[in-house]
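User: I want to check something. If I give you two sequences, will you return the structure for each one separately, not as a complex?

Assistant: Yes, each is folded on its own. Here is the first sequence with its structure:
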Amino acid sequence: MADASTKPTLAERRRQLVERCAEQRTGLAFELQALRPSAIIDNPVAGYVASHRKLVLGGLAAVIGLAFTRKKRLGGIVASAMSAWRVAQAALATLAHYRR
């Protein structure tokens, strides 16, 4: 039979378990943060694309589909895409300036 003086009390055992669980939660939080795609990518556009992949791919598919079905309008689509790209770059630069 084990001696009662060498066994930890229930309160001591509970304190140890709570401490161990807190350490495990902290470690898991760091691991999950490292696995997120936006944590790997520092560029805000790339982070948005990684987190909204289905939306971006759907939009891209629609643009490509329009380009192939309407070859006459391909120049207009390219011009519109370039214009949207410039506006997005300017908006992101402004947003980055205000975040500082």
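And separately, the second sequence with its own structure:
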Amino acid sequence: MREPTRDGQRRVLVRELPDHLRRAIVAGVPEPPEELATDTRNVLLTLARAWTTLDAGGIRSKDAAAERVAARLPAAHRPVLDHARAVHLGDEDERWDELGVRPCAELQVRVIEESYAS
């Protein structure tokens, strides 16, 4: 299956991830993410990419993955991922004081592990 991207290129989507790739992605997700305090944005975006790769079979850009996952998160966690995406795109400053970063990351880890580990 081919899906157009924003720049007009086409990317190939895998209908179903091979088991070895799925296991490798799940195994690479630490609990809790150790770098969360020092590399917050990238940890959140990496978790979003892992989730969307497992869910949809294709590797998305960080901002596309964040957008897709944010839409699936409970409302309380959406601002965290929306902010990570905005920081990544250069639209906002990297400030995490007021946001519930750890609960958002832990939820993503839990979904990845519970839904895709086997």
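Because they were folded independently, the notes below concern the second chain alone. The longest strand covers residues 2-4. The helical segments are 19-27, 40-56, 62-70, 78-88, 101-116.
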